[in-house]
Amino acid sequence: MTVLVLGATGRTGRLVVDGLKARGVQVRAASRSSPVRFDWDDPGTWGPVTKGVVAVYMVTPEDPGFRAELVGSFLERADGVRRIALLSGLSAGYGSVPMASREVPVRRSGVEWTILRPGAFQQNFVVPPQSGELRLPLGPQPRTAPVDVADIADVAVGVLTTEGHAGRIYGLSGPRALSYSEILEIVSRQSGRPAVYVDEPVERWLERMRADGVSKKALSWSLETFDAIRRGEYARLHDGVQQVLGRRPRDFADLVSSG
Ligand SMILES: NC(=O)c1ccc[n+]([C@@H]2O[C@H](COP(=O)([O-])OP(=O)(O)OC[C@H]3O[C@@H](n4cnc5c(N)ncnc54)[C@H](OP(=O)(O)O)[C@@H]3O)[C@@H](O)[C@H]2O)c1
């Protein structure tokens, strides 16, 4: 049994490759820069990577402009694939199109599918901002329950190598919600570099992003995400790690203190 891992050089993909290999599974690790080349924008690369493959860990690019129909076209050509674990995101749960639209072709594919919906990754927060200020228009006291990428990868490996996960959607969070100020306190203490959260007016934030050349699509997806953070969507706890692995997810403070 060969398992194809897309996004194999990325944060979760590389850990999924290691986790599968540790269980003796034959792995084909693919991405644009991997020796096994796979490019969502080059259908000529799709056939060779799926030859002899029975299961796929599917990662799509973070870019909100990614065309979700490519997922369907890819799956139509992936004849022998019987199982898929799709890395989606928490935003699909509140109907945000960039992530929700990628789930549709997977659910319609007719193969055993499982969808992983992590919230923000803990690894997004481990380095304190250079300026000492994290300026975002998230309200006075935003909270989030970020999840460790190693837990996401462990869940993916579990889903791909054990039974009972077909047709399941697993929300993935850390074990507790933290305010952005608490998160910055934790990383500041560890690094010795003080950092604080600043609730920036949205117009000021938009000006800065436009000056940095951020695309309209990316800006509107960010604003949608910010609204969701303000509503508390990212502070909710999800028990996917417990359900698949039978253990608690890793706490952000433990990740930071382990270096
Ligand atoms: N960051 C978060 O907090 C968060 C939260 C929830 C969900 N997500 C979702 O997680 C996914 C990203 O997963 P990740 O963090 O494990 O990966 P990542 O670290 O963002 O790396 C992206 C991976 O995809 C490959 N890739 C990028 N563009 C590609 C393309 N056009 N064709 C083929 N491969 C491509 C990259 O390798 P090459 O450059 O070699 O191609 C790399 O292996 C995104 O869908 C994102 O929306 C992220």
Can you characterise this structure?
The chain has helices at 13-22, 46-50, 69-77, 97-107, 149-161, 180-191, 202-211, 216-231, 240-245, 252-257; strands spanning 2-6, 26-31, 36-37, 53-58, 83-87, 112-118, 133-136, 143-144, 168-172, 178-179, 196-199. The chain has 259 residues and is an alpha/beta fold. The chain has a single domain, classed as NAD(P)-binding Rossmann-like Domain (Rossmann fold), CATH 3.40.50.720. The mean pLDDT is 97. The chain binds NADP nicotinamide-adenine-dinucleotide phosphate. Residues 7-13, 31-33, 38-41, 59-62, 87, 89, 118, 120-121, 124 line the site of NADP nicotinamide-adenine-dinucleotide phosphate.
- According to CATH, the homologous superfamily is NAD(P)-binding Rossmann-like Domain
Unreliable spans are: none
Structural class: alpha/beta
Mean pLDDT: 97
Oligomer: single chain
Gyration radius from CA atoms, angstroms: 19 Å
Q: Give, in spatial order, the strands making up the sheet with the most strands.
A: 3-2-1-4-5-6-9
Which percent band covers the strand fraction?
15-25%
Helix content bin: 25-40%
Tell me the major beta sheet: 7 strands, parallel
CATH architecture: 3-Layer(aba) Sandwich
Main CATH class = Alpha Beta
Count helical runs: 10
Number of strands: 11
Question: Judging from the principal axes of the Cα atoms, what is the shape?
Answer: globular
Distance between the termini: 36 Å
Overall tally of domains: 1
CATH-defined fold name: Rossmann fold
Element-level helix/strand string: EHEEHEHEHEEEHEEHEHHHH
